[in-house]
Amino acid sequence: MQGLGGSVAQLWRLGVLQSSILKGLCCKHQATSRFNGVCREGTRFRADVMFQRIQHYVGFFDSEIEAAHAFDQKLRSLCPDDVVRLQKSLNFPTKREVSLFACQQERRERALQKSSERASKEEESFCLLQARFMASPQALTHEIVRVSGSSRVDAILQIQNSAAGIPLQLKSASASGTRQHVFSFAHVCGYDGMLVVMIALGHDHMWAAEGACIRQKTLCITLGSDRDRRLRVRNIGTTLEKCFRQREVYPLLSLREAKFRCSQTNKVEEQAHSLLAVVFAGIGFRLERAVGHASAVDSFLIGGSCELERRVQEKASNLSKRNRYAINLWRNGGTCGPRPYRESEFDVLLAAILDDGCLSGLFAFPSQVLAKHGLVGCKPKRLVLHPTWAMAGQEATRRRHAWQLEYFVDLRSWSGDTTLPTSICSGLRRLMHKLAP
DNA sequence: CCCACCTCTAAGTGTAAGTC
DNA sequence: GACTTACACTTAGAGGTGGG
């Protein structure tokens, strides 16, 4: 309730403000009322509630405030869930409803904080493994390479500068509460052909098991137990080298193959990143994955005259069943729904247009341009992309999306495994010039 | 055409419930 | 009572669908 003061007048203002902001943002038609669920018809105001895909007629009213109150009343009767009701934007939330909303936001903040901490733990576990490995004699001949992105393979162990190695899955766990001697590793099954390395954060303990031999979903290790003794890693270098020699158990995997060991959804993302990296390399730029999941951006684009580093948010889209390309401009998340990007969160948004696994084109939008068009910094939006060959049918819509073409490069003349044609290189350089701060 | 809501698959943490 | 396991909760991105 901070800043609201709790007075009815302030709550009223909040309601009006919320609904008018929402109206302005989400309604493409001319709004006929500043309240949700209310529209003017002739000299009177009509209220309707859309709930669970059913439109509920409320009635006609002489004033829009009356209609707005009637909308709220109907919504409360249809929807008993306070949070869902608030997401549907009541015009005049009660004091209690506003405080519930505040609680939800606090929960959300805590959840996001936890998520960020978890990402740091993943990174910490890799650093621990790396540090212990570097202290072993095997580090003179072998190396552990981090597999970035959403792959189910976290790292691979290979002979230095070779093309393939054995896949490693890292799991981390912290001891909690009074059970400081118990470590519970979740989601440990389904890693056939990989070595599962379990790391106790905050302690100097490490265990390893052959992925194919783990049958349970969660593996619990109690210090001093049989399992602890059986799986405990005393010397990570020796353990990894021994596994490296067992080719029949741990087949070798290249870094590229490892990156594509992920869900179909993440394959789209990974494929786009690999292709974009090749394209930018063609004009002397490097597109490098941000290390670890804790980073606020997907990658960094480095290059140009001053070796500038731009923070990049990457998106990819295949042609959808509706015959169009679209990207989601939000972070997913939890009980309060999707969260929009902030203009300050990244410098450039790279959107890859994919067709049958080939990169047909790319958009590179500066964050300020997206903000100018109301696509970041306000509410979660989906951006329909219009490359030159997929322009909108109607002239008015074409005009509305014309700005996108300024930030587009057509890549259809590039086959993917050859050097970039000169026309594409010059287009990319022009685009990079626009992205300069 | 835009928006809201939904699904899918991936992950880690904490804890309730089951087993020995 | 100690140990083990499953589950509910949270996060992520891409994409499908129906209403307005």
Describe this protein's structure.
This is AP2/ERF domain-containing protein. It comes from Symbiodinium microadriaticum. InterPro entries: MepB-like_sf. This protein has 437 residues and is an alpha+beta fold. The protein is globular, with a radius of gyration of 27 Å. The chain has 3 domains: 8-93, no CATH class; 114-257, 3-Layer(aba) Sandwich (Trna Endonuclease, Chain: A, domain 1); 263-435, Trna Endonuclease, Chain: A, domain 1, CATH 3.40.1350. Residues 1-32 and 83-88 have low confidence and may be disordered. It is built from 11 helices and 20 strands. The two termini are 40 Å apart. Strands 4, 5, 6, 8, 9 and 11 form a 6-stranded mixed sheet that branches. Strands 12-13-14-17-18-20 form a 6-stranded mixed sheet. The relative contact order is 0.08. Strand 8 and strand 9 (206-210) form a beta hairpin. The structure holds a DNA duplex (20 and 20 nucleotides).
